[in-house]
Amino acid sequence: MNLSLVVPVYNEQENIPLLFEAIYKTIPPLNKTWEVILVDDGSRDKSLAALEEFAVKDPEHVRVISFRRNFGQTAAIAAGLDYSQGDIIVLLDADLQNDPADIPMMLTKLDEGYDLVSGWRKNRKDNAVTRNLPSMLANRLISQVTGVHLHDYGCTLKAYRRDVLEGFRLYGEMHRFIPVFADSVGARITEVVVNHHPRKFGKTKYGLERTAKVILDLFTVKFLVSFSSKPIYLFGGTGGLLMIISSFIMLYLMIRRLFFLVSVTGSPLFQTSVMFFILGFQSMLMGLIAELLVRTYHESQRKPTYTIRTKINLNDDD
């Protein structure tokens, strides 16, 4: 299989026929073996029925996964990746704000030697206050913290070589950070301007609260990328710094006691020094515990973050 399209779907019944129309117009002319995996994320409308209809019409190319309930976009993407077979994987949304017509251009970019091509919605057709501005600020923050400089982490339309997606699992709402994880394994990443269209049907599933979630997830990503294999560097470094500060405070108190006869225990700095030393020692112990957990994690079985109700045109061995 040359190419796999992975499409998470949630309450998009009106958009599904238009999505397939765009896919069939774009992908067959590429002369590649291809599949499209659509993951119904517990839709409450007739999205699943529409997907099943297309799966029956085209069992060679259309695969459908249906979740028992809504697990979120990241879980849907993870399921699609797990069951995909293509050497190249393209992610896109089902709402048609991403344009499948951009896929050939992104594949051409991959052929230039890149491992990941990320879409940039330069002329984004969303609300400027509730969507565009928070997204711009979040993208700048992510780029600064991770060192992977992209204009649009939130754009689902991305093309990947399969090998850069192996070695990590997606949890929570981590799908937007896939480029960061890919960069950690040495992927060559580039960004291209893609089309972005106003939503025709349905309504967006995200609001301002998503920005807060992105910031919290960023802490997790930074830890996983920088310290997941050696957490003692973070906890031990923090603990060591606190213990050094504690030692300097105590030295200051001792000098003041010897030369100026000022009580050591009567100063609030004494309690501060003791607290810093205890916190530093506890941080060291947490680092050692984290080291044990990391080893347990790497040796444990991989468990999926979703449960599947039905599979269409997919074998248990896929």
Question: How is this structure best described in words?
Answer:
The protein has 318 residues and is α/β, with parallel strands linked by helices. The protein folds into two domains: 3-227, Spore Coat Polysaccharide Biosynthesis Protein SpsA, Chain A (Alpha-Beta Complex); 232-295. The protein is 47% helix and 14% strand. It has nine helices and eight strands. Strands 7-5-6-4-1-2-3-8 form an eight-stranded mixed sheet, with helices on both faces. The chain is elongated and about 90 Å long. The mean pLDDT is 87.
Beta-sheet strand percentage? 5-15%
Q: Widest sheet: strand order?
A: 7-5-6-4-1-2-3-8
Q: Which secondary-structure class do the elements indicate?
A: alpha/beta
Rg is 25 Å
Q: How many beta-strand segments?
A: 8
Shape: elongated
Run of helices and strands: EHEHEHEHEHEHEHHHE
